[in-house]
Amino acid sequence: IKKSQCGYFFEEVPHESFPPPPGPYKFRPQSVILCTGYDMGLKNFLSPQIQKEIIQIGEWSSPPPSPASSSASSPTSSPPQTRKISWLKLYRHVLHPTDPTLFFLGFVTSFGNETCIGEMQSRWVTAMIAGLIQFPDEARINNDITKLENYLKKSKPSVAGFVRYIPYMDELAKDLDAVPNVSFFSDPWLYFKVWLGAVVPTQYRLNGIDTHPQARQILAHL
């Protein structure tokens, strides 16, 4: 907090004054929680046993540069380049493979909005805890993790937790029956808005679990 660019709050605002009056105002909060997500160091709070269960180390070897691209003054070829990255052995990048009470939210990166991914992960987890969707069985979990591991070995990424924004959001939304189900014939405007417009969390509130009655209206103003 001392090193951040967080503002200071001085004046108290009585409870009766909420919602806030128009214009700028100041208030004194009881606490300020900074959830930046910049530090993903799990080793600071996970037990050694859980670390062993989910934190995996991938070691990728890249082929040496071709002779044509190497320096003419170098008589020997360069050795293969090796790098290591850590990746999390989790179902859908969220659920512990053997403990159905342990979830990890927001431990992904993407070219899309990672905050929106975190919201979708939270919806997925709460629906599972509430019994609205079923927990995956062991075979499904192992199959998902095996696919992830094979993908990492094949693609040799620099960042292990990277997900493709739209496919990953759709994957979680499918379990919630929240993939937009819009008919061109019944609502052509909304159909084009969903499938040709920006991908936003609101479109995953049109149907399924946790629908929002104003989802269509919100999409109209985007």
Tell me what you see in this structure.
The chain has helices at residues 48-54, 114-129, 138-155, 165-175, 188-196, 215-220, and strands at residues 55-62, 81-88. With 222 residues, the protein is mainly alpha-helical. It folds into two domains: 43-62 and 80-176, no CATH class; 179-222, no CATH class. It is globular and about 60 Å long.
Q: Which band does the percent of strand residues land in?
A: 5-15%
* Envelope shape: globular
Order of the strands making up the biggest sheet: 1-2
Which residues form runs of ≥5 with pLDDT under 50? 6-11
The tally of strands reads 2
Helix content: 25-40%
Gyration radius over CA: 23 Å
Query: What is the structural class?
Result: mainly alpha
Distance between the ends: 34 Å
Protein name: Flavin-containing monooxygenase
Keywords: FAD, Flavoprotein, Oxidoreductase
Pfam families: FMO-like
GO molecular function: flavin adenine dinucleotide binding; N,N-dimethylaniline monooxygenase activity; NADP binding
